[in-house]
Amino acid sequence: MSLQRSLSLSGLTVLATGCLLGSIALSAPQALATPDGGPVVTTPAEAPLPPHPRGTVLSFSVCDEAQAKADTLSIHLSARSEGASPTIVQQHLNQLVSNAMAILKDQPDVKSTAESYAVGQEYAPHDKRNWIARQTLVLSSQNRDGLLALAEKLQKLGLSIDDMQWSLNPEAYAKLEQQARLGALKKLRQQAEEDATALGQTLLGLERIHIGSQSMDDFEPHPRMSPMLMMAEARSAATPPPESTAEMQTVRVTVSAQARLAQQDQTP
Q1: Which residues pair with 122 in a beta bridge?
Q2: Average confidence (pLDDT) over 32-46
Q3: Is the Cβ–Cβ distance between 239 and 159 less than 8 Å?
Q4: Per-residue confidence (pLDDT) for residue 127, from 0 to 100
Q5: Yes or no: is domain 72-168+222-247 CATH 3.40.50.150?
């Protein structure tokens, strides 16, 4: 092979290699040179993000309530005895509670329980110490007038009224709770549709629905009334009978959920 032919072949090889490198450079990402001569950084072309496959999630809650007049009256009474000896005050207290329970046993429509029992010392003027014994009795009934008359008898016996509370019986409370729950669920769907419309979207469905449970103690259906504490030495046959008026009771139920929304053009 002649020298001229060899140079021609080498030139064709270089030309072909240059075309190949040029095609690679055109398809490569854009190169950005750093000012300090550091390594070359490449940035790929950015593509728009697709819409969220599950749509928009809206978390919210609603509540509803139902009311009824209280139907059960509870009266807390205290039996109290004091003296110089713990044994004597306990004997006197036990006799007083026994006499009270004897009156209560003939009252079929009254629920009565003897609760906390405590004995301790109390400091009096001139550093005098007395022993105090005390026990609590709780009476409850739906017969308001009969229960108040019974409390008056116990006052004359020597007991004092600490407070009176109104409440709903368990059946009435459950009925109000169901009414409030159904009302909250209806509001839940309506609110979700209104919110979706306000956002220019369509409601796909409701998820993670939670109904707030409320116990009698959490809701506090027993509103505490003004204490009616009467010391034994201040009582007499002329003491006026106790009075109490039933109040309205409110049961509230809260429902929370997640609403799945989507743009109208993405609705299946």
Answers
A1: 130
A2: 47
A3: no
A4: 65
A5: no
CA distance 131 to 89: 7
Torsion-angle region of 205 (φ positive above 0: left; ψ -120 to 50: alpha; else: beta): left
Most confident stretch, 1-15, 144-158, 210-224: 144-158
Backbone angles phi, psi at 166, to 5 degrees: -105, 145
Map tokens 């739906």 to a residue: 142
- Helix H, strand E, coil C: the string for the chain is CCHHHHHHHHHHHHHHHHHHHHHHHHHCCEEECCCCCCCCEEECCCCCCCCCCCCEEEEEEEEEEEEEECCEEEEEEEEEEEECCHHHHHHHHHHHHHHHHHHHCCCCCCEEEEEEEEEEEEEEHHHEEEEEEEEEEEEEECCHHHHHHHHHHHHHHCCEEEEEEEECCHHHHHHHHHHHHHHHHHHHHHHHHHHHHHCCEEEEEEEEEEECCCCHHHHCCCCECCCCCCCHHHCCCCCCCCCCCCCEEEEEEEEEEEEEEEEHHHCC
| 151-193 confidence digits (pLDDT tens) | 999 999 999 999 999 999 999 999 999 999 999 999 999 999 9
- Number of other CB atoms surrounding residue 242 within 10 Å: 16
**pTM (global) more than 0.70:** no
pLDDT in tens, 93-138: 999 999 999 999 889 899 999 999 999 988 767 667 889 999 999 9
- Contact indicator for 103, 153 with CB cutoff of 8 Å: yes
Q: Give Cα separations from 87 to 49, 95, 122, 131, 203 (angstroms).
A: 85, 12, 15, 9, 74
The length of the chain, given as a count of residues: 268
Give every strand in the sheet of 201-211, ordered side by side: 56-69, 248-263, 201-211
